[in-house]
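Hey, I was hoping to borrow your eyes for a little while. For a while now I've been wondering how a particular protein folds. The fold is given in discrete form, as structure tokens running alongside the sequence. Could you read through the record and tell me how the tokens relate to the sequence? Take your time with it, there's no hurry, and the full record follows here:
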Amino acid sequence: MVSNFFWRFFMDKTLAKITYPHIIYRKDIANGSPVIEGTRITVKCIAEYYQMGMNVDEILINLSHLTSAQVHSALAYYFDHQKEIDSDMKESSNIAFWKKQVGRSSVKRKARA
């Protein structure tokens, strides 16, 4: 039988917040989406390259200012949040979604005028 102390210790360690080196969130960069620290490159951008069939080396050829560690960290974040990021990618490539966004913007501009 597992002691209560051991179980609490184990659960506290496993439920600790996961952090990703090189990945930050700032509201003034990409509306708070996860980005690679020191850049404006989003995790979503790296995930899109990955989904196009690129491996880490190929991504680094296209984004030569990044390091291998940065790309791996972005991919780790992506794999841990894949459902959410894939949904965001699908939405952002949806023409109808963007037409609605443009329509909302023009309504706001007309209201201000």
